[in-house]
Design a protein that fits this description.
Elements (H helix, E strand, L loop, with lengths): L11 H13 L6 H5 L13 H13 L11 H11 L4 H18 L9 H19 L16 H7 L3 E5 L5 H8 L4 E6 L2 H13 L6 E4 L11 E7 L1 H6 L4 H15 E11 L4 H21 L3 H6 L5 E6 L5 E4 L2 E4 L2 E7 L1
C-alpha cells in the first residue's frame, strides 16, 4: 500500500515548500534513515510504515482542524522557508557543514534553545527521575528541587535514556554529567550521528551510544525509561505533511517509552497547554481505536491513556502578551501508563 500524504488544497505555502523541496530532495526524505543503518545495534526490526502513514492519514481526515487564514505574501515566504526544517535534506546539509567545521576548527555546532535551557532540562529531569525512583510523584505545584544525594545518583544508573533527534549529542553529554549512564542518541541524519560520536569521543563520553534511526519509522525494539525530545517534534511539525507526521510520532514514541517511564519534550513551537492537548488527543484516538476492536483483550490493553501530564518547567523567563503570560520555550514531562 502506498503511503497517504495529506496536503492543504490551493495553498501557496504548500506550493512554495514543494518547489524548494524538489530542488533539495533527490530521494524520499526518509530514505537515508531507512537505508543507512550503518551504525548497528542490538535493536532492529522493520515496521509496516506504509500502513502507519495510512492509519495516521485516515485518523487525521476524521479530525477537525481550523481552516487556514489569509496571510500576507511575506508571511507565506517565511512559512515556506521555515518548513524546510521539516525535511531530512535540510539537516543532512546542516550537519555536513557542522562536521566539516568540527574537523577543521573543533566547533561542536549549535545548541538548540541555548545552553541554559539544555542545562535546565537535564537538572530538572534528573530531580524528577530521582523523585519517581523514590516513589514520590510530583504534585505539580513547584519546580522539582530534589537535593542531590549519593543515593539519588545511584538511582539514576538504572534509568535507560533515549534522546530522539539527538543532533550533535550535547544534551546527552549534559545528562551524563548529571549522573545518567545508560544513554542512547538517535537521529535520522547519518551526518548528525557521525558528528555526535566524534564530539562525544573527544569530550570523554565514549560510552554514549549513537544510532541512525528515524523516530517515525523506528527500528528500535527496546523500550526506555526516559525518552527525551528537544526540538524534534517541532521540526516534524514544520514538514508540509506535519499533522500526519505528528500523529505518527505519538504512535512511535508510545512504543519507545517503557511502562512507568517518562517522556520529556522541550519545544519552542508549542506551549505547555498545546502539548498537553496533543497528548490528550492521542490518548482519545487510542481509546476510540480500542473500542472499534472486537476482542476484549485488545480493548483492555488500550483502555487507559498512554500518557498522562506530570509536570513542566516553570523557571524559564516569561513575557506578557495580549493579557497572557508565556515563555519562548516549554519543557513538559509525561508519565507513560
Amino acid at each position: 500500500m502506498a503511503a497517504i500524504r495529506l496536503q492543504p488544497e490551493d495553498s501557496e505555502v504548500s506550493q512554495q515548500a514543494r518547489a524548494v523541496a524538489a530542488d533539495l530532495i533527490s530521494d524520499d526524505d526518509r530514505s537515508v534513515a531507512a537505508d543507512s543503518w550503518s551504525i548497528k545495534s542490538e535493536y532492529g526490526s522493520t515496521l509496516d510504515d506504509d500502513q502507519r502513514h495510512a492509519d495516521a492519514a485516515e485518523a487525521l481526515s476524521n479530525a477537525n482542524f481550523p481552516a487556514a487564514s489569509d496571510s500576507s505574501s511575506d508571511k507565506d515566504e517565511t512559512d515556506a522557508e521555515a518548513s524546510m526544517l521539516g525535511f531530512q535534506s535540510y539537516w543532512d546539509a546542516a550537519y555536513a557543514d557542522d562536521l566539516t567545521n568540527f574537523r577543521e576548527h573543533g566547533h561542536a555546532g549549535e545548541v538548540w534553545f541555548g545552553v541554559d535551557v539544555m542545562e535546565t532540562v537535564a537538572s530538572w529531569t534528573k530531580s524528577l527521575c530521582i523523585d519517581i525512583s523514590q516513589g514520590c510523584i510530583p504534585n505539580d505545584i513547584d519546580d522539582i528541587k530534589s537535593e542531590p544525594t549519593e543515593l539519588g545518583d545511584k538511582l539514576l544508573s538504572s534509568w535507560s535514556v533515549l534522546d530522539i533527534g539527538t543532533g550533535n549529542g550535547l544534551l546527552l553529554q549534559e545528562f551524563a554529567k548529571q549522573g545518567f549512564s545508560d544513554l542512547t542518541g538517535t537521529d535520522y541524519s547519518e551526518g548528525a550521528i557521525n558528528l555526535a560520536q566524534r564530539i562525544a569521543n573527544r569530550d570523554g563520553f565514549s560510552n554514549i551510544k549513537f544510532l541512525v534511526d528515524d523516530v517515525l519509522e523506528t527500528k528500535l525494539e527496546k523500550q526506555f525509561q526516559l525518552v527525551l525530545d528537544k526540538g524534534t517534534l517541532d521540526a516534524i511539525g514544520l514538514h508540509p505533511d506535519g499533522p500526519v507526521k505528528r500523529m505518527m510520532y505519538w504512535d512511535s514514541v508510545s512504543k519507545l517509552v517503557a511502562s512507568g517511564g517518562l517522556l520529556v519534550i522541550t519545544s519552542c513551537n508549542s506551549t505547555k497547554d498545546e502539548l498537553v492537548q496533543e497528548v490528550e488527543s492521542f490518548n482519545q484516538r487510542k481509546i476510540v481505536t480500542a473500542q472499534e476492536l472486537d476482542t476484549a483483550m485488545d480493548q483492555e490493553s488500550c483502555r487507559d491513556p498512554s500518557f498522562g501530564y506530570l509536570s513542566h518547567v516553570r523557571s524559564y523567563p516569561t513575557f506578557m502578551f495580549g493579557g497572557s503570560v508565556g515563555s519562548r520555550v516549554a519543557t513538559v514531562a509525561f508519565l507513560r501508563n
